[in-house]
Amino acid sequence: MRTRARALGLISALALTGGAFAAVPAEASQSAETPTRTPECQGDWLPATPTSEDVMSGQLSFLDRPAVKIGAKINWKLDPYKSRSWQMVFQSLRWMGRLVADYETTGKQAYLTRATEIAKDWVEKNPYGGRSTNKFAWSDHPTSLRAPALVCLSRYVPDAWLKNSLAVHAKLLADPRLYKAGHNHGLDQDIGLLRIGCRYNQKGWKDLALSRMVKSMKLDIDSEGSLREQAPRYAIYVHDRLRVATDTIKDCGLKVPDDLAKRWDGLPKHISAATQPNGYMVPLGDGAPDVQPAGFAHSSETVQVFKAGYVFGRTAWGDPQSAYYSIRFGPGLKFHGHEDHLGVTYYAQGRDVLTEAGFHSYENTPYRRWTMTPEAHNIPVVVGKPFHGRTPTSLVRRSIGKDRQSFTLTDKAYGVSRTRAVLVNHDQDVMAVLDTTDGGKVRNLWHFDPSLKVYSNGGGRVVVGEGSWRATLVQLALPSCKPIGGQKVVRGQTNPYQGWISPAYMKKVAAPAVISPAASPLLTIVVPGTAKPEVSCSGRSVIVHTSDGPTSFKISGSDLV
Fold first, then answer.
1. pTM for this structure?
2. Which residue, 208, 346, 357, 465, could crosslink 371 as a Cys pair with Cβ 3.0–4.6 Å?
3. How far is CA 497 from CA 16, 295, 373, 490, 510, in A?
4. Residue 255 carries which DSSP code?
């Protein structure tokens, strides 16, 4: 590490003689008394909090956590919440960049002075490879986010310490061994490198950043506009960062590549499809249910199947009472995904019914690890078989009609075939799920929204509700089509974890989870709007009486039609 640090120190020294950087443009040394708004310091890259006044008073609030007092002399190893995420934001120095941006708009010299003090102190206390350097200081994400903040400061501070540090940043951002291709971190690395390359007119860095960006985003966003990071929430982040990237490309006098523009244009369809009728995103992967997208165009289709591994369906657009569901399949777990294959969610009659444990944080805690397991999702488990993570799941059948859709999915996540058929009926709201396996028996798990209370459990039926509204989960053993009892309702259990939902970052609340008895095949029917749905069978047909009248479907092998 120290050998690399010395090498990078030589690269930094070259910056002073023009070896790594071209001559600094004259505007870098312009008078601090006459600031002008610059592309480097203005734009969407800046965080909204903390404000400049917060920073000046030494109060830093990140990630909705209470503010931390840092004082005039900053401890760069500060970790008040024992949180990697907090440290990442702290080390990124974007909060320092807020001062420079506001200096440009207000002319307050004190903002620039304090920003310079903060940045210089960070550079002096955190040399790359230094023994006392914070361990997160030079991780890929804080490094990439810090680079634009330092570039912004360089418009007003032409000093050697800052140029040298930017040279080190550029070297690391350009290092292929540290690059996160096909990931939002890689996009941020490209933005940081491009900003430095443009600031100092380094063609090699500019060309590398732009070419990598195109290749990386083609890996991260497929031709259908789906983000491959397995958490739809991150599609919003990548869309926002691609806007910053295109602004940076234009500021640099370069042309935005067509492939990059196409990938950016495709994301809104994916984002809107993953947004429930209440305006909040369905909490898949590292995504909490408090994410509320705004202003994204949507497809005219009410049911959309993305090859990246998502089915999103709704009754209608623009109607908060619309039914909505999601189904997961596709490639094995990666990046921000969870082990949620074959999992479903269900929104009906203006409320969440079936949801997921969701996203709590990135901290390596037992609870965080549980939220990523199959048991934190609405999935079938093959009894007595070990789970094999990162197993892909295939969508083998689909039937999409206006008032009814059905899908069949299969994989070998437990070493044997497990198959799930999902049918959603509209008008008379019903979700039916058939779970089968060739390896014995399955049991499944159903996570209800925390707002719902369990009112009864018996005879193969669990009734949940809020106020006067009710929904019923019915489970039948096949081929007898008789109710199968023994459902266990768990709420707020910690050993092992079960019966929890994370409504927002670093929060969790107890919520009812139903663990079924073991059977195969196992038919589960969810009927919103009633506590007493009549369910009967005739041959392979199942008749369900909902609050809006009867509906029926058929069982055909391992499919529902």
1. 0.93
2. 357
3. 57, 37, 10, 10, 10
4. P
